[in-house]
Structure formats: C-alpha cells, structure tokens
Amino acid sequence: MIGRFQPDRQLTARMLVTLFLLGLLYVGFVAALLVLLKSTVLVVVIAAALLFGQYWFSDRIALYAMRGRLVTREEQPQLHGVIDRLCATADMPVPRVALADTDLPNAFATGRNADHAVVCVTTGLLRRLEPEELEGVLAHELSHVAHRDVAVITVASFLGVIAGLIVRFAFYSQMFGGRRRGDQNTFAILMAVMAVSAAVYALSFLLIRALSRYRELAADRAAALLTGRPSALASALTKLDGDIARIPSKDLRTASAFNAFYFVPALGAGASLSRLLSTHPSLEQRLAGLAKISAELGRPA
Questions:
Q1: What residue segments make up the domains of the chain, in order of their start?
Q2: Binding residue per annotation — 144?
Q3: DSSP labels for 65-124?
Q4: CA 285, 288, 290 angle in degrees (round to 5)?
Q5: Is 284 a catalytic residue?
Q6: What is the spatial distance between Cα 62 and Cα 81, in angstroms, rounded to a whole number?
Q7: Across the beta sheet with 118-122, what order do the strands follow?
Q8: Is residue 280 a contact partner of residue 265, using CB atoms and an 8 Å limit?
Q9: CB within 8 A of 180, min separation 6: which ones?
C-alpha cells in the first residue's frame, strides 16, 4: 500500500482468501490441462500478452473508452486543488487529472501504479456534488491507486482470461477444423477441456466479482478515515445512486461495460443474483459500512 490510507483488516483478510481461492483454482486448472493436453503454452502466452497490454496501457484505454481528456490546473483549479490536498494528507504522488464530458455522474481511477495513475471525473459529477462530497469521492478513487487495485485485479483476472481463451480456441477448432469420425478420443479430450475451462471461467468470474466488491468497501473505509467525514461520502453515494437511476437507459447500457472502474455502478444491483454478479456492493451495504465508521470516529479515545 502507498501513503497513509488505513487498511481494514477484515476486508483485507477477505481479499486474501479470495485470491487464495483463485490460486487454488489456477493450480487445479493447470493440473487438469496437463493431464488432458500436451501443451498449453500458446494459450498462456496469448493470455499473458493481453493482460500485460491491459495493465501497461490501462490509463490510456480507460480514458479513450470514456472520452476523457487530461485537464490542467488552469482549466480545473478546484478539482486539482482537492486532489493536491488529499495526496498531501495521504503522502502519495499526485496523479494526472482528467475530465469526461458526460452527464453521467461518476468518477474512476486507473493506471498501473501511483506514478502513472489518472483520476477522471465527469462533468455530471462536478455539477451535482458539494465540495465535501467531491472530496469524499476523490479520496475513494485515490485509495484505489494507493492499494494498487489495477494490478490486483489484472493478476486475479489472468486465470479467467486463460480459461475463456481455451473455450474459444476449442470451440473454433471444432467449428472450422472439423472432426474425424474415427478420432473419438481426440473429440472426447476436446470436450473435457471445454467443460473444465468453462467451469473454471465461471468460478473465477464469481471470485473476481467478490474481490471487486471488497475493493469498493475497502476504498470507502479508507476514504472516510482519510477525510474524517464519512457522512459526506455517504451523501455523495446516495445522491449519485439516485441521479444515475434517472439517466436514460441507453446511456447506462453503454457505460455499464466500465462498471468495474466507476465509483457508482451505471446499473444498480437489484435481485440477489444481480448482487452476486455485481462489481460493487449494494448502496445499503456501503452506507452501513460508513455509518459504522462514523460511530467509530465518534467514540472517545
């Protein structure tokens, strides 16, 4: 971790358990592939290249996708001022600052490390939030930078990417390569590889979603403790969650592909299955966590 953001031991333990389970899944998956196939080098190399590109160019990819642009201190003095103060308090490098011209009220941080980080906010967010609320949101995003969340999620995603590629390779090799009737053994091995890969992909997907939700709770806590105003962050969450519900569905569907980056997801979690697949905890969970921090800060030393 970078700077003075305070960790949450319980959430950290949950994240470590999730990463441990992903590691076990990875070991089991590799063992199964070694039994079923003679070589998986090509798939691993391609997956590694994809994830390396995603990790190394994450800041550029995210800004391009969200149509964000870097802004100077002269263009956005208030935004730069808040980030400068928070970084000084947290004792961390100041990231680049970007602005996305969209009414969708949101923010995100990305970059492979603190020296290459970008914090981007939308014009819709700036129009809606009070200064204390904006400070809470930016502290949340800076916490993601300090905890190296881009690197954590990239490493955690490696297994899922490999499994997904193997499923696709196996499917297209059957579709375009054909299958000889006399080679039943090869076909059976191919179907076993597809089944194992699909199961591993599904499990890793669920574990990564759980890890993402823990990240958001940890960032909420770190931001609330850094600013000393959990109520301001709770106010921002409530306001943005309500305002996003009023954004046209077409715009939300377009933005939902980037939910893992956002401060607030572009589509709210409704049913329990949706919550299981969501990148973010529910609003109720986040508000309950912030209320607990308020109680902690209100206790006498």
A1: 9-298
A2: yes
A3: HHTEEE--TTT-HHHHHHHHHHHHHHT-PPPEEEEE--SS--EEEE-SSGGG-EEEEEHH
A4: 110
A5: no
A6: 23
A7: 68-70, 96-100, 118-122, 107-110
A8: yes
A9: 186
Question: Hunting for tokens 């949340």 — which residue is that?
Answer: 140
74 carries a ligand binding annotation? no
Nearest one of 263, 272, 200 to 236, comparing CA atoms: 263
- Is 262 in a helix, a strand, or coil? strand
- How far, in Å, CA of 13 to CA of 65, rounded? 33
3-state secondary structure 144-183: HHHCCHHHHHHHHHHHHHHHHHHHHHHHHHHHHHCCCCCC
Token look-up 């899922």 returns 160
Residue 223's DSSP bridge partners are: none
* List 74, 133, 135, 141, catalytic entry: 141
pLDDT confidence of residue 230: 94
- To the question of whether residue 140 is assigned a binding role by annotation, the answer is yes
Give the dihedral of Cα atoms 153, 163, 24, 260; nearest 10 deg: 20
Average pLDDT for consecutive 10-residue bins of the chain (301 residues)? 65 76 74 64 67 74 82 94 95 93 88 86 93 96 88 73 69 55 65 78 84 90 93 94 67 56 65 67 92 80 38
In this structure, the chain runs to a length of: 301
Identify which of 154, 206, 189 has the alpha carbon closest to the alpha carbon of residue 47.
154
pLDDT of residue 285: 92
CA distance 176 to 10: 50
